[in-house]
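User: Run a structure prediction on this.
Assistant: Running it now.
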Amino acid sequence: MAAEAPPEPAAQFQAAPPQQAPAGPGTAGRISRFGNIEAPFHAPPEKEFPVEVSLTRKKQSDATGVTGLGDDTRMDSSGALDLACPEPCVMTAVLFAPGFDVTSGSNSAELRLEQERDGPPARFTLRSRKGLDGVSSSVSADFWRKGAFVARIQRTIFIGDPNRGGKGPPEPVLAQPEDTPVVLQPRSIPDLTVRWEEKDVGAQHFCLVTVDSPAFPALASDFCTPGEQIERFLAGRYNGVLKTSLRGVKVAGDDSPAPGPQQTISRLRGLGRELYEQFATPNFRKALEQLRAGPAANGGFELRTIQINTNNPALPWELMVPCADQSCGFLGVDYQVARWHISDRTPDLAPQSIRYATLDAIAPHYQGASYLPNQQKEMQALEVLPGFKQMGGSLDDFRRIIESADSGIVHFAGHGQSDNGYQIRLEDAAADPTMIRGWNRGTGRRLYFWNACDSGQEKTVAGFVDGWAPALLDNGAGGFIGGMWPLQDAAAAQFASQFYRSLDQGLKSAPGVPVAKLIQAGRRQFLSTGDATFLAYVFYGDVRLQIKR
């Protein structure tokens, strides 16, 4: 069952006009402020204490550091944030305090900024949970404005008597100051943003999810179900998905007949309902229900894009079905959905464009039982695109691609296996996510498309995309596409063929092609074919990411 949610915020949703791009450099409406989290260095165990979050004209202390910057935010060498915030400047501060309960109610509050003076801080009351005496926790505050992430600040609070010792959290990775002028590009804002973050404090695990949208004020966070519990929930259910995904392929130890298309659709729709009922938090439900009401109920605002930022990829958001009747379908079919992996090695915001220069295709030659009959058909769909290069299939060839400075797309068409570290099978070896973490970081901005199929012998079905996506994004990738479960050869080739055909046509008629829209169109093939492979694809990146000439 889902973890108990904190008290729901008293504020009601209010419709707002569609979002506007943030102000650029050199325009009116920018303001310089220092971020502060004022709290005792040593919090009394299991007792309440005050915390204040503020943006002030003068630096208050060195206890707070800046750990994340939005695309339209810069920081100078003194630690001051240069913010785009035309008056009336109203931001929302969202407090993430693992190890503590927010006893004052909501963990979000408004901040009103003025050019000539400091406004009142956002005030919270915290109390540490039982069993954490002698440990420390990293407490952070995110600033949001009209659905756009602005900045993140962080500080450490020690719980209990500091003389008792205890292991503290790792030092935060601070944002780097920029003393040279930077040309800021206006950033498109997702229609709905979800941040799902998990963290260990002492021996306890905490999970918090926050939703935000330009259509309404920021909401308080909810407690969420930790990823490990979600993985246990999905384990048996994914075994059923394996049967539906590999229709026509012999699965080891299973002599039952393959299900028909309508049976497959019903089973996955039922799974989508279970996911929504079990794991969708109260504020996410409120936000989705409000936005699903349509533009007339939301001041002309229409929900098209959903961005999921998370450090635990276990929950398959794309499969959620938010209503019991036929008025809605899977989130990943009805809307453009993208995920982004948050970690100390990846930026808080994913890039919104990738320049298309090359399309490097990796198609290892397999023989015997490993032969993929549709692999060549897939390559034929790719080779008509400009910049196409069929690369070698060895481990050395693969490493050169990962470490490359090229910009564009890397496509893998071959076997994947998840019984030993989520590997892809090359001609002379297998490669896994841990391996590439030991290689040089690629300097080019690339989209990776892993079309990893299965021979029917896989017994472990979950986690393949969960392993590769974080590793490639940590290595500098601008985006990643892969399957949540093993893919059927023919359907995988069909999905890829449509993706690249639409990309090629789009680049001939427009300056850029949105990746999430291509993935959404591919997923829709599930509704007409009943082949679960089409619904398996997950896109990691910015939901507004465009491939551009």
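The radius of gyration is 24 Å.
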